[in-house]
């Protein structure tokens, strides 16, 4: 019995990044490791052959990553934020500036979970903050339960790519 994976919402650049990683691993890194393993296997005793053992381990890691990338790309539902019809509310792909109770501002962009990078201000669609912001409008105050306790944010701006 096969179950359909949940949709993997992703922006066009996010899908391109997954595809680029897949192509690089399959087309460049894996063939290079196969070559090393083949060469090392020809050198005799494999039980103490570091190149052979490391190569086999690395090949398993690459194969696992390729399988994962393929599953994520198959489940991908590409959403272009520039085509969002209602740009007055927070939806997938929105860049939102928030202000906390002390007027400290933070800008985040809601992206697919596979393309999230909190350090760069890209937060995954399923994070607590993103869930709290979904559907919000300018001036809305949203409460988010974080590991350090509850935090309150006001939506100051909402932008979408052109």
From TrEMBL:
Q: Which Pfam families does the entry link to?
A: GreA_GreB, GreA_GreB_N
Identify the residues that the record assigns to the Transcription elongation factor GreA/GreB C-terminal domain, covering every copy. 87-160
Example GO molecular function: DNA binding
Q: What Gene3D superfamilies does this protein map onto? A: Transcription elongation factor, GreA/GreB, C-terminal domain, Transcription elongation factor, GreA/GreB, N-terminal domain
Q: Which residues form a coiled coil?
A: none
Q: Does the keyword Transcription apply?
A: yes
Has UniProt tagged this entry with the keyword Transcription regulation? Answer: yes
Which PANTHER family does the record match to this protein? TRANSCRIPTION ELONGATION FACTOR GREA (PTHR30437), TRANSCRIPTION ELONGATION FACTOR GREB (PTHR30437:SF6)
HAMAP family found in the cross-reference section: GreA_GreB (MF_00105), GreB (MF_00930)
Name the NCBIfam families on file: greB, PRK01885.1
What family is it from? Belongs to the GreA/GreB family. GreB subfamily.
What is the stated purpose of this protein? Necessary for efficient RNA polymerase transcription elongation past template-encoded arresting sites. The arresting sites in DNA have the property of trapping a certain fraction of elongating RNA polymerases that pass through, resulting in locked ternary complexes. Cleavage of the nascent transcript by cleavage factors such as GreA or GreB allows the resumption of elongation from the new 3'terminus. GreB releases sequences of up to 9 nucleotides in length.
In Swiss-Prot or TrEMBL terms, this protein is called: Transcription elongation factor GreB
Species per Swiss-Prot/TrEMBL record: Sphingobium nicotianae
Q: Which gene carries the instructions for this protein? A: greB
């Amino acid at each position: 019995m096969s179950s359909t994976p949940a949709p993997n919402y992703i922006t066009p650049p996010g899908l391109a990044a997954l595809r680029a990683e897949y192509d690089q691993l399959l087309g460049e890194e894996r063939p290079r490791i196969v070559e090393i393993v083949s060469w090392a296997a020809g050198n005799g005793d494999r039980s103490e052959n570091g190149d052979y053992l490391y190569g086999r381990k690395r090949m398993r890691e690459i194969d696992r990553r390729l399988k994962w990338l393929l599953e994520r790309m198959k489940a991908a539902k590409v959403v272009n934020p520039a085509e969002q019809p209602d740009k007055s509310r927070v939806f997938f792909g929105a860049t939102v500036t928030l202000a906390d109770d002390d007027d400290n501002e933070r800008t985040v962009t809601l992206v697919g979970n596979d393309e999230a990078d909190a350090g760069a201000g890209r937060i995954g669609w399923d994070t607590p903050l993103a869930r709290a912001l979904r559907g919000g409008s300018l001036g809305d105050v949203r409460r988010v339960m974080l590991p350090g306790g509850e935090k309150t944010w006001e939506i100051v701006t909402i932008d979408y790519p052109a």
